[in-house]
Hints:
Bound molecules: manganese (II) ion
Structural class: mainly alpha
Amino acid sequence: MSPPAEPERLASRARASYLGLALGDALGATVEFMTPEEIRATHGIHQKIVGGGWLRLKLGQVTDDTTMALALGEAILGAGGRVEAQAVAQAFDAWMRAKPVDIGNTVRRGLLHYRHSGQTQVPLDEHAAGNGALMRMLPAVLATLNEDETEMQRACLVQAHITHHNPLSDAAILCVARMLRRALAGEDLPGLYAAEVLPFLQAHPVFVARKREENPSGYVVDTMRAVLQALFDNHDFETTLIDVVNRGGDADTTGAITGMIAGALYGEAALPARWLRALDPGVRERCVKQAEGLVRADT
Ligand code: MN
Ligand code: MN
């Protein structure tokens, strides 16, 4: 593993990761719930941030994947850089009250559970293995980069268990957290595979894909298979993101997760300028500010 990155280099990677999340969300949302065939018939290869989709988004608009991450980031920054269950649950609840453009069923159920019980953890549920806690986890990783790994894991799972409490969701979250931490420190693609992905697939063989993962659902196993295939079949930010969203299905969420990892891995200079120009300027600014604030709050 590379030596710890210098502060400016780390801040740059953190910005790239947060912007990568938003870019993947905005790019993928246009084709969410379409099959690869439908995407080909409508867009050829979908590679422009244009809005639309089933949510009828404005150009450059993002969805719950990015806005829940921003809510989490605000809660962490408001608590002086600490990931506190109560503050995060309140922030997610406020996010839901503000009528987001979309919201997953497990997220809604979990936040109603919090609203009615005051509990910041839903009961363990073997069947609720959605990707909704994975898609929004980045701020918990950025806030704990200088802590030991146990604290990073605690932070990631505290935010997760407010709505998702499931062993497969937890396993995917911890894998992506470790990948992000390593990529932010300067690890390259083969290094990331050897150090984190191979051991993860050996420990959790359900995530091994037997064929090309197309039309991935919101089930965290399908999501991770598509994300990992796109990441390790490609070698730059742009083609990786184009690959994953053109698989259709839960494309905004595979885009968001792939985007945060690829952003951390390939860095700010790799983010396509035309995508950054198209992204909602307010969202772009909040991602940058939070990335810098979360990394700084932790040093
Ligand atoms: Mn979404
Ligand atoms: Mn989605």
